[in-house]
User: Fold this.
Amino acid sequence: MIPLLASAIEAHGGLRRWNAHKRLTATIVTGGDLWALKGLDQDQDPRTMRIDLHGEWASVEPFGKPGQHTEFSPERIAIVAADGRIVAERKNPRASFARHDMRTHWDPLHRAYFNGYALWTYLTTPFLLAADGFDVREITPWHEGAEVWRGLRANFPAGVASHSSEQDFYFGPDMLIRRHDYRVEIAGNFPATQYVSDPVSVDGITTPTRRRIYLRDDDLTPMLDTPMVSIDLSDFRFD
Assistant:
């Protein structure tokens, strides 16, 4: 493990604490302009997000209407009723985004897949970057005001569903994550920057509670007028 990643993981609680847990539950509230571009309504109701920490699985509830939840894995996305009935399901969900751009409308399964892989990536960072198959290296730091944020570039293994195969992560002087850059491949490959802040410590693991995602220029400057996606998190619980 390269020194930057080792320092970041230790600052967020360390692998020993992380590996002692199996699942994370949190309350999420989501907003931003992306949903309207995708032809979707987005309310400000809180929802429950659950993820596995050591395998790519996620679920959000309620989804669509009360009593329904999603089940996400890279190979399958489903909407499931409280009694276990499959409301809708799609195998090989990534293929359903072929030829999409930023304004291509999404159906509920598109939205559920995006939500699943995105939140799983966010909530497992930076620990997932130490998993088998990730290739990481230090890159040019980002200067944010008076601070210097050290950068790490990760190439994701093919079996992990995420925004893009190459993603950049920036860490502040305290080695906590401040910024996450990627391209949203399933929506026309548009470049995005995510600012993360307001960390809390839960069972010794430090995680941000505020996430704001913006479009990004070619020179890495984010367009901070209006967030494409906003995510506020609370009530973290490890199982």
Notes: The mean pLDDT is 97. Helices lie at 3-11, 15-19, 34-37, 108-124. The longest strand covers residues 190-202.
